[in-house]
Model the fold of this input.
Amino acid sequence: MVEGIRRKDNTFVRQQYGQVGKHSVVKICGWTKKMIRCGESCYKHHFYGISTGRCLEMSPILICNQRCKHCWRDHSLFSDQMECVDKPKDIIEGCIAERRRLLIGFKGWSEVDLERLENCLVPKQAAISLTGEPCLYPKLPELVKGFYDFGFESVFLVTNGTVPAMLEKLSGLEKLPTNIYLSVEWWDKESYVDFCKPLEEEQYERILESMDILKELSEQKKTKTVLRITCVNGFNMDHVERFKWIVERMQPDYIECKGYMFVGMSRKRMEKENMPDHVKVKEFASELASLIGYAVKGDQAESRVVLLERK
Done:
């Protein structure tokens, strides 16, 4: 089991995580709750067509090899080793059941549309993105395949890119994740080490290798690749040109410029002034689009996010 998960049970409960097996977690996204309450959809629905209310957000592992300043997670919940590995099938079944348990209380709210709720109780979109670095889970390819075998229509994977060997394994799947995100905030090795606090040597070089793998997967049209740039006031928004080489190397299908949010445990490491408003995020995205020849595809003010698409 992941060291420490049992002694942290109460912490997970307080933060509204649902624990699954020995090392996995599931949580209800705020947008899923909004969909149930009033039918509002998240930006991923508007950008990529996924069903907001039927999205299962999870992580197969509570291990991360970075301690990023802007991360809203509680770093103390991360472990550093696995003594045994749960089967992907058990993780998926457990996540579906635990997600349902976390949502079932909505049935007691008189204003909820019960038909919409029943629809949302059956997930069809998997977001492997909740916490930790999912590419450190050794059975990730089987997990992705398992979601499709369970009838899921789409699978999104978010990675920090430090495990290119796992991306190589994923490339051998008959059906890859629908979207693979590479999340960055930095523009060179010095800024990466300062902001993301890697725990191992050569992680920066591994991210560069991951960019090359994702470029190849995009060229082969095996998946949609997304470069997510977290925009942080006072850190990375004043020199847009710094990101040009990253786009040129990875050549992602899409770029999401998303404002840092002053929430969770990041409030102990960052200042509220580091959170840009949507206007500033749009200005950053528009300048980047002009610089690299991408088109502005859409935006959502509430999430402070702008989508760029490769022409």
Summary: The first strand starts at residue 17 and ends at 20. The domain at 9-310 is CATH 3.20.20.70 (TIM Barrel).
